[in-house]
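Re: weekly structure request thread

Next one in the queue (399 aa):
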Amino acid sequence: MAEAIRSGCARNSHSAHSGLPRGLVFAALATLVALTALTGVSGLALGSPAAPPPPADPALGPPFDLAAPTPHRLAFTIDTAPARDVLALLAGAPDAPAALRRLKASVNATAAIRAEGLSPDDFYGRLVSTVAGTPDPLLSTFVAKSPYFSRVLDTLETEGQPAAGLVGRRIASLLPTGTPITATIVLVPFFGVSGFAEVAGARDGGALVLAADLPRLTGDLGSAPMPREMLLKMLRAAAAEAWRALFDAHVRKAPAWPDERAADFDTLLARTAAEGPPTLFLIPDDFFPIVPLLEEPIVRAFARWNRAADVLIEGKRKDSERQELLANAAKGDFWTRYPAIVGAEITDALLRFAGRERYLSALEAGPRAVLSLYLGVTKGKRVPELSKAARKALAAKSP
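Done, posted below.
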């Protein structure tokens, strides 16, 4: 597989909860084609096939530096066996007892079920009931989708592991280097009947198990993505969840990072800086650099962020109102969660303008260091700006 996780399908989700609006996708793709016509750089191959391709411009691709050394050792694997066993049971396979025994013995299946907020005993009970002729209202709906799910699992088994290795390197490249991290990450496609995330994580000893909810990722079967697009969508969501889990466990600690219990400007800064990398992972490679391709919604997110920052810095509203403001910032669809969108743009800009080492050093030093670095390296550049009050607050308390 090429050294990129690409998506040529506008249908793909850019979030663990929702996709880009169709009109915005078409506009972004039109911009991408225009840029291609001007630069000659794209996977669209608009030039003559006989001519050698021009050297790739790193400014037009994702900002991950996979050649940079890292002290982290991340093993990223995919386990499709539990999903295969569930499909076999739902299809009434002759070796159903053996499939059920394998499923119950699988530590990854147990972790995936718990990641969905379920009891393993309850899940297996509902599964056995369905197989025995008393269909579970939800599990039984998976039967009609079984052929599609099987094709997705085929793709995961043939193309998934090389791509998973690349994802592991991308995750490692955006983790601060002060504390070396060794971790095993296992992506388990499964059939959750609870929870509200497309990919949810759970610890199983030293392993981080990521349960990918195939039905939730698929949506309506009539408009389901092609199996390879599903693979890429799943890996992007898994990368975001894995980075967040490792960052929270090893880096996001006091005194550099606030505990976020206070409804103040520092909490907004922390959420913005911490949500930047995982949000960046959700965006397909063909949409980088995200400015100018996605400039319009990013500018709107900065406007909402600046209004919230001004309110929090002013400090005149009641604590309950400030708490509600921060809570609402994390709700809604992808583009309404403005701290994450602003964080993604800041992360992308810093990786391009400041470089990976300076960015990771700032990330380790805390959110104020990240935002202050953004102000410093983007001065005079055409990028979204922080409000005057936010700039003043950052300058008054330098990291």
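The chain has a mean pLDDT of 84. The beta strands are 73-78, 182-190, 199-204, 207-213.
Next request, please.
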